[in-house]
Amino acid sequence: MSRLLQWLFGRLPIGWLQLTHSRTRFAAAIAGVAFANVLVFVQLGIMNSMAIATLKPYDFFNADIMISASDANSMTEGGNVARQWLFQAQADPEVTLGTGIFVGNTNWPRPTKTLGLTSFGIDPTLPDFLSPVLKPKLATLQLNDSAILDMATRGLPPEEAAAIRPQTPASFEVSGKTVTLYDTFQGGGGFGGDGYMIMSDQTFLSLFPARSSAAPDHILLQVKPGADPEVVSVRLRDLISDKSLRIRSYDQAKADDLSYQQTKRPTGIIFGFGVIIGVLVGIVIVYQVLSTDVADHLSEYATFKAMGYPQKFFLGIVFEEALILAVFGFVPGVIVGTGLLVGMKKATNLPLAMTWDMAAIVLIGTLVACSLSGAIATRRLAAADPADLF
């Protein structure tokens, strides 16, 4: 290692030799940086999974514009929208098709746990509004009180989910009615429910008798090929009489939902603070190690300073130590962080995973934080007079 660092820096690796002089302290410093890395990895992993889970239901549908109530901050929240605005929107020459979707929560009581399912009611006669994955499964929704289930529903054994097929359906009671599951699709549990279920709008209304077919949760629109959904959305805001409605492109609705979850909801704010705290912990740990190292070798540094070595020479040594701690702390941090995310995914069925982007961000952040700590640690040395150091 010394030869490699000597080749890289073009001089004796003083920083490496000072760090390894006390192996116990060196190991403790690496453990501290690794701990901060693990903390950030877990928080980033949860934030990333929250983003994936937030956008997942949007992947079920194929739309260009979404009309929602003024308080609809997400796909699964907010009031209803009068269906009459769908007909008014279709007066626009570039709107080709529209439909309403219903959203509600249903419970599947099971012997060990009641599964909470975010349920969507759609018009089965309009397959173009469904994703290519869901479109082939639409035929079964034409049957009364039928539905298709998210195969990744949290708490549902995979073998039981795999057994749900048109030849071997599964049934359960909801609001005194029997819902029959004929097929499954790939969804994934989120933070608001254990999984998803899709049914026809008629089945949905039979399960939620208080709901009206004239008031879906959202209205989805498709526009002519080549038409800009943003431009059409602006036009629809002038066309539709109810000015309180949120009329946005489908992509903008997804972006708004994600921003709301990350910056307005308590979970997103807490996880964001977790990342900041992890960074601060790393900076403090590395600063303490480097500051102590500078104090322990102050007389040696003073000797060099009296001999005429410039300030950048000392900065080079401290930055060398900071970079060594960053790299050596990152490696165990990414290994432990990956293991924790894998374990948490198995326990919660949330889309938790280590990604290359996360690893790159944390590595760069660790290098920056360690360099910052090193720069702070050299302030005392920069202001010192060699005559005062002996």
UniProtKB/TrEMBL annotation:
<feature type="transmembrane region" description="Helical">
    <location>
        <begin position="269"/>
        <end position="290"/>
    </location>
</feature>
<feature type="domain" description="ABC3 transporter permease C-terminal">
    <location>
        <begin position="274"/>
        <end position="385"/>
    </location>
</feature>
<dbReference type="InterPro" id="IPR005891">
    <property type="entry name" value="DevC"/>
</dbReference>
<dbReference type="Pfam" id="PF02687">
    <property type="entry name" value="FtsX"/>
</dbReference>
<keyword id="KW-0813">Transport</keyword>
<feature type="transmembrane region" description="Helical">
    <location>
        <begin position="356"/>
        <end position="377"/>
    </location>
</feature>
<feature type="transmembrane region" description="Helical">
    <location>
        <begin position="322"/>
        <end position="344"/>
    </location>
</feature>
<keyword id="KW-0812">Transmembrane</keyword>
<keyword id="KW-1133">Transmembrane helix</keyword>
<keyword id="KW-0472">Membrane</keyword>
<dbReference type="InterPro" id="IPR051125">
    <property type="entry name" value="ABC-4/HrtB_transporter"/>
</dbReference>
<keyword id="KW-1003">Cell membrane</keyword>
<dbReference type="InterPro" id="IPR003838">
    <property type="entry name" value="ABC3_permease_C"/>
</dbReference>
<protein>
    <submittedName>
        <fullName>ABC transporter permease DevC</fullName>
    </submittedName>
</protein>
<feature type="transmembrane region" description="Helical">
    <location>
        <begin position="26"/>
        <end position="46"/>
    </location>
</feature>
